[in-house]
Write a structure and sequence with these properties.
This protein has about 290 residues and is mainly alpha-helical. It contains 13 helices and six strands.
Length: about 290
């Protein structure tokens, strides 16, 4: 059955979940008895979202073995996305080992899904132009993502140290491995620094951070949609509700020449205007 899912182009994540879910269900119910499975799922003390996912997994089993089943309707509860602060994100990166720091910086600067980070090949990185061309997951739109000078050097060092060729994967392991090591690192750091709030920051929150800060800078929801690789604008619109756009939350700096202006732009500042004293004014959200 799992081989059939693979042949039908289901993602590795979906296949692993179906395998895990069916193994769990089989320990508590007879998979060939759909009514028994239905009762077990209904009586679980868990969220409707998880019940919905279990039903999805079991429906794959029923379809394959031609079992008649009236699939219950469970709906995914809406979840509030909590965006970590820049200080928290940078703290997690700064206290990471070199490879983890490179991965997390990629997640921060590009909003790549963990699976997209782990699927990157060396040839997907244009170090000269500072652009990442990921293979988009979930059948989303293709995109080109700019990276900073500092991330470019991190990637260059990583590629050189590991003697990677263009067709080599950029990082070893898959997204499950990435997530596991991230959680171990995050929890140890939270305990060491006595900051329990860090434990609530999921790896996927780096993607949410990218989307919300990009919208704050551009106010262009269609651009954010394209950069996130979303298929539907409704998925992107949630980020317009997650940020505070009060005008008093800016850090302002001035530049007196092109070199200083370039440095500010590379640091994430945006140009506002030129003052009567010929100083260029820039700003960036706190």
């Amino acid at each position: 059955m799992l081989i059939k899912l693979k042949n039908n182009a289901k993602s590795d994540y979906t296949i692993k979940f179906v395998d895990k879910a069916l193994t769990y269900l089989s320990k508590h119910a007879d998979l060939d008895d759909s009514e028994q499975v239905t009762r077990f799922i209904a009586n679980l003390q868990t969220s409707d979202s998880y019940k919905r996912n279990l039903c999805f997994a079991y429906s794959q089993y029923c379809d394959y073995y031609k079992i008649v089943w009236q699939k219950p309707k469970y709906y995914q509860e809406p979840k509030t996305i909590r965006i970590p602060t820049t200080a928290q994100i940078d703290m997690l990166i700064a206290n990471s080992g070199r490879i983890m720091a490179t991965k997390l910086t990629l997640s921060k600067e590009t909003g790549l899904r963990p699976v997209e980070v782990c699927n990157l090949k060396v040839k997907d990185i244009d170090l000269e132009q500072k652009i990442v061309y990921p293979t988009t997951a979930k059948h989303g739109s293709a995109r080109a993502l700019k990276i900073s000078n500092s991330l470019r050097e991190m990637l260059r060092t990583h590629i050189d140290e590991h003697k990677l060729n263009p067709n080599d994967k950029l990082f070893k392991g898959d997204s499950a491995n990435y997530g596991k090591h991230y959680r171990l690192h995050r929890n140890k750091l939270a305990e060491r620094l006595h900051k329990p709030e860090l434990k609530s920051i999921r790896l996927y929150d780096f993607r949410h951070y990218f989307a919300s800060t990009l919208y704050a800078k551009t106010r262009d929801i269609l651009f954010v949609k394209q950069q996130m690789g979303h298929k539907k604008i409704e998925t992107t619109l949630i980020y317009t509700q997650l940020i505070n756009l009060n005008d008093d939350e800016w850090t302002c700096k001035t530049a007196s020449n092109n070199t200083e202006a370039t440095q500010l732009i590379e640091a994430g500042f945006e140009y506002v205007c030129t003052t009567p004293q010929d100083l260029m004014l820039f700003r960036k959200r706190k």
